[in-house]
Amino acid sequence: MTPLIFKTTFKALVVGAICVSQAAYACTGISLTGADGTEVRARTMEWSTFDLQNSITLIPEGFEMASIMEDGSEGATWTAQYDVVAVTGLGRLVATDGMNSAGLSGGLFYLPGFAEYPDYDPEVTDVSLAPGDVLTYALSRFATVAEVKEAMADARIVNVVDESLGFAAPVHFYLSDPTGARLVIEVVDQEMKLYDAALGVITNSPSYDWHLTNLRNYLNLSATAMPTRTVEDTDFSPIGAGSGMLGLPGDHTPPSRFVRAVAFSQSARETTGGYDTVRESFRVLDNFNVPVHGVAHDADSEGDLVLSATQYTAAADMTNLKFYYHTQFNRRVRMIDLNEVDFDALNGEAMTVPMDDTRDEDIETVTFG
Prior knowledge:
The chain is of the alpha+beta class. It contains six helices and 19 strands. The strands form five sheets. An eight-stranded antiparallel sheet has the order 13-12-11-8-7-6-3-19, covered by helices on one side. A five-stranded antiparallel sheet has the order 1-2-16-17-18. A hairpin with a 2-residue loop joins strand 14 (about 230) and strand 15 (about 235). It is globular.
């Protein structure tokens, strides 16, 4: 694919990256740190309406990009400063998740009902980005969260209606880097919001600051079991393990998932680093896999539903530059080592391959004797 064609493709922006139903989009993101300092950012990707045909796309340093505005003109234009591995969908070069060769990684998450963008202003064309371009822009241009914060303070994420959706993609973004810096980017009431995300958790609506306020309702939660109590000379002990988490919400809504993600990531086992930390992030996110019928918003659409609302789960080891994932079709973990990928061999072009070579589970038959 040539840079010129790539610019044209950006008119579609987020068709393959987001969903049009709030109920169907239930992504959860977490961050974990290993004992050796390994920083891992991981997420689930939920979309229960149709198959996103998720792919892995390699974007090489030097690749030319542009954000196309609603009137068809070019907004911000840029050249990739870093090699990027990204998850894309429906054959479009729009990153929903990914990591670059400097270790900066991030994901796109749905924010319906709260994301509201200003209109495009031709007077500030060079800093105008359509919502679906923000993650690709950040991963291809910057090495650290600090650099992203500095750039986004001057950037404008503007209202660009996608023809396939009928409205501008309501999204927000979570980024992290090998230093452990974490950032949430939102545009609410047409104003850019940048949040230092120390907890390392993100879900969907409402806005990020609302979720932090809501956490105050759950200060009683603890990984430590409740002690035995004596009432009128009678001892009452917890019925079983986990009594410290009584009151933990268990539904699929974004507020409940945010609380659970904080509780589970904060109580995760200590890991040594490297793949051990990645493995723990996958274990934590197993609690957030969403059954496809658990969020089916329209009974008439069931014929189009795929195996799971959780279409893929990914984990970026930002310290060792390794990107891991498994999918609804194959739970085997696969890894892309950015240290080993020959981006120069791409000759300045992007390359896309399916996440699954075949959509069959990798099952090992156990034999005896």
